[in-house]
């Protein structure tokens, strides 16, 4: 990039950073919603983890419509549309809270996930393509700091409102008559209304600002000579096996990330830590992710390639999981929190490795990667089933094959079907 190009990229990076903060805040509120709705709607572990399923399944079902939105309206307008859709989903939480019907909460989460599918389909390839490919993981790491810093704040902010005095509340609940219990649970459900009204206001304001911003469009259909030559004769995205393996790796990774972030509160409670204290554990996981993102900014690509960073992250994730399975209380909980560190550089590395060399197929490739986010709709409920069938600790065995597949992509899969140099 030339110096003027670098200068012009500063403003877009700030704007995209704000977007990453917003969808990080919305996403990581789920770590509080899972235990909160488990009490308010009287759910078991499997049912409570349907919060993640309803939210993330939208990435699978709405990926193709998201690609259509971006093709028709472009990146900038697509981001504004995504924010508006998230605002609608947040609004649905009001009737959900007033009726205390779990299905309505899940509908609101699905609509929020739909908006995020559009937003992610636009923002992730945008930040990947806006600068040199070898430093894409560094830019995504910067975005990750915005995203996970919001993730640190979200459980603290929402938890302070909806989980206030929750241990005393649940202890008192068992002593009440059925009619009194319903009244108390309705009061608990109503706590979520004010936070989500504030979220709607912020989302609408940001959507308007994005729409009227000077955010430049990027031509993803343009290919340089080398990429065009390599892609000559290719008519389908499925002719890029490294991308397909990357989508599967992302599917596995997001499942692991959400399990680590959304289950740790319940895991702490399973070790007899009061919920009023355990709610802070989700923020600990996100803090570890922020530390990892700072490491990515410092070391990638100056000291380590994106590909090597992914290899080391997958190995670390495997090791921490194995220790967590057998270690005593606080060591095991600490290992789950430290999975945030192992997970931090996976998203920044998988995206550029999977999109490498796609040229005019970049938008559809990005849509497939966004579909991979649906892994978070599949693996957390499976974890919940394992918790109900075993224990919260042994259920983490599900993470081992996930990290091993990511290791395969990092070491071998990213090269499939093309001659590459690690980026």
Automatic annotation (TrEMBL):
Matches recorded under Gene3D superfamilies: MFS general substrate transporter like domains
Compartments reported by the entry: Cell inner membrane
GO biological process, one term: D-glucose transmembrane transport
Database matches in PANTHER family: L-FUCOSE-PROTON SYMPORTER, N-ACETYL GLUCOSAMINE TRANSPORTER NAGP
Transmembrane segments annotated in the record for this chain: 12-37, 49-70, 77-95, 101-119, 140-163, 193-212, 240-260, 280-300, 309-327, 333-355, 367-387, 393-414
Molecular function GO terms recorded: D-glucose transmembrane transporter activity; galactose transmembrane transporter activity
Lineage: Bacteria, Pseudomonadati, Bacteroidota, Sphingobacteriia, Sphingobacteriales
Cellular compartments per GO CC: plasma membrane
Membrane topology: Multi-pass membrane protein
Protein name as annotated: Glucose/galactose transporter
């Amino acid at each position: 990039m030339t110096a003027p190009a670098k200068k012009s990229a500063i403003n877009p990076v700030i704007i995209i950073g704000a977007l990453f903060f917003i969808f990080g805040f919305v996403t990581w509120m789920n770590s509080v919603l899972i235990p909160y709705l488990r009490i308010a709607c009287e759910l078991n572990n499997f049912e409570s983890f349907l919060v993640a399923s309803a939210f993330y399944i939208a990435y699978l079902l709405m990926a193709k419509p998201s690609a259509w939105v971006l093709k028709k309206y472009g990146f900038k307008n697509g981001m504004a549309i995504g924010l508006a859709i998230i605002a609608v989903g947040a609004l649905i939480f009001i009737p959900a809270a007033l009726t205390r019907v779990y299905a309505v909460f899940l509908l609101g989460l699905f609509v929020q996930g739909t908006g995020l599918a559009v937003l992610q389909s636009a923002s992730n390839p945008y930040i990947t393509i806006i600068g040199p490919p070898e430093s894409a993981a560094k830019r995504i790491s910067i975005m990750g700091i915005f995203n996970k810093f919001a993730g640190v704040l979200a459980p603290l902010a929402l938890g302070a409102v909806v989980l206030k005095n929750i241990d005393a509340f649940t202890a008192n609940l068992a002593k009440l008559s059925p009619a009194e219990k319903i009244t108390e649970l309705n009061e608990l459900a109503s706590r979520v209304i004010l936070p989500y009204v504030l979220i709607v206001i912020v989302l609408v304001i940001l959507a308007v600002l994005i729409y009227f911003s000077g955010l430049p469009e990027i031509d993803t259909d343009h290919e340089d000579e080398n990429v065009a030559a390599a892609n000559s004769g290719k008519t389908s995205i499925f002719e890029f096996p490294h991308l397909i393996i990357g989508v599967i790796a992302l599917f596995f990774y997001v499942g692991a990330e959400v399990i680590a972030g959304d289950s740790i509160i319940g895991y702490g409670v399973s070790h007899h830590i009061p919920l009023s204290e355990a709610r802070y554990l989700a923020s600990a996981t996100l803090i570890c992710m922020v530390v990892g993102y700072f490491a990515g900014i410092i070391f990638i690509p100056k000291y380590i390639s994106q590909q090597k960073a992914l290899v080391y992250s997958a190995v670390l994730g495997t090791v921490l999981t194995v220790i967590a399975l057998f270690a005593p209380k606080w060591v095991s909980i600490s290992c789950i929190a430290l999975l945030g560190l192992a997970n931090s550089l996976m998203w920044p590395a998988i995206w550029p490795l999977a999109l490498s060399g796609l040229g005019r197929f970049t938008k559809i490739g990005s849509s497939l990667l966004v579909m991979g986010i649906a892994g978070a709709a599949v693996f957390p409920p499976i974890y919940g089933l394992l918790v109900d069938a075993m224990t919260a600790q042994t259920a983490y065995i599900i993470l081992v094959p996930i990290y091993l597949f990511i290791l395969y992509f990092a070491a071998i899969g990213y090269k499939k079907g093309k001659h590459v140099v690690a980026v």
